[in-house]
Amino acid sequence: GAPFAFVWNILGFLLVGLLVIAYAWGMYLDLRHSIGGIIVPILVGISGIGFAGLGLFPAEAGFEPSARTTLHFTMVSINFLPFVLVAFIFAIRLKSNGYWKNWTLFSVVMGILAVASFFIPKSIPVGLSQRVGMGAYFLWLFVISSALLRKPTRHVQEIVI
Fold it and tell me: CA-CA distance, 36 to 43, in Å (whole number)?
């Protein structure tokens, strides 16, 4: 019943989720020859599927129990749990990678923030917990994607004789 809910569900959830899936493919193209080069992009892609699903399955107003609300919370899990895993797996699997090792501490910190968001006391507004968790998620995506964009590429030049 929120104003512009349909637009938000399409642009704020579905489109963003599809962009995360596209980013996961780009990440795979870069990491495919690295240790962890498959699991990290797969988890990012699954997370994007969950985020897109939030737009396809909006919860009932006030989170009233229903099939839609259950599907919405399922999509939250499909979005958030892979992110928590990827934050730690990224750090573990890429700590020996010459370029990505510089981002492992950041990834662990974002994973810790995401997990910590579940333990914010109930006396604090629920929205704060959600914002801490999603803030860690989007900050991780932004920083790691920025690092991917800045990563030097090796160009192999052919010598024509």
Answer: 11
CA distances from 118 to 11, 67, 96 (A): 26, 24, 30
**What dihedral angle (degrees, nearest 10) is formed by the CA atoms of 46, 49, 50, 56?**
-170
How many angstroms separate the CA atoms of 93 and 72, rounded?
31
Q: What CA–CA distance (Å, rounded) separates 129 from 135? A: 10
Cβ atoms within 10 Å, residue 120? 16
**Is 32 within 8 Å of 38 (Cβ atoms)?**
yes
95 residue type, one letter: K
Q: Over the stretch 13-38, which tens digit does the pLDDT of each residue have?
A: 899 999 999 999 999 998 888 877 89
Q: What is the pTM of this model?
A: 0.85
* Tokens, residue 34: 């690295």
